[in-house]
Amino acid sequence: MSESDPQLERIRKLLAKAEDPAVTEAEAEAYNQKAAELVARYGIDQAMLAASGASADEIGTLKIPMNDPYSRDKASLLTSVAYPLRCRTLLHRRGQKVESVTVFGFRSDIGRVELLFTSLLLQAGTQLTRVRPGGLFPGESLAAYRRTWLHGFARAVHERLSHAEQEAVRTAAPGERSAELVVRDRAQLVQHAFDTEYGGLRSAAPRLLSGSGYFDGHDAGSKANLDPSALTRRRKALR
């Protein structure tokens, strides 16, 4: 995902507008939504180029470490980013802690997942230091509230990315092969390769969370910056 790519440059400009303190909250959300659409468009373009033989794109893996606190919830956020982008995840657990997650998919999609997840994790972490449970549940554990906050944040991100990916497929320009067929074939190839490698493993049981932060987290996730170049800009600023 080269910094000189014109699609990513458009995303940078949209997010710069969204970050302008002079714009309204509604305008900022509109800019963020458009950025999410362009992220999806980028994924479709890479898929079509690979399908036509104009570029190489192979199935591979990337192992991403998870750190406490809330390692299981961070892993859930990563999965919520990966699945709409046609990747699969494998959680490496030790007891209740998730030590790392392996992302499985086409290289171009794994790249999108890594950049988006890292950016979203930083955004969520910044907000987690400020959020507190309200007064509706006196004595509620801060940790319980934050776990459900992260669950809501991840769910909203999943919904936004899923919608953007579906729209990108629906509105793709017609070609020798339709984007819908290309995306479906790639998703099937990834699932088949994943099942071949890890099909004998059991799925984890659903978690039961008791905190009240879901809706606050969902609201934050619905407004989160989905710019895949945010991490690159942030790294430059820290140098």
TrEMBL record:
InterPro entries attached to this UniProt entry: DUF2786 (IPR024498), DUF7168 (IPR055592)
Pfam assignment, any one: DUF2786
DUF2786 domain location: 8-46
Residue span(s) of domain DUF7168: 75-180
Domain of life from the UniProt record: Bacteria
Record-given protein name: Uncharacterized protein
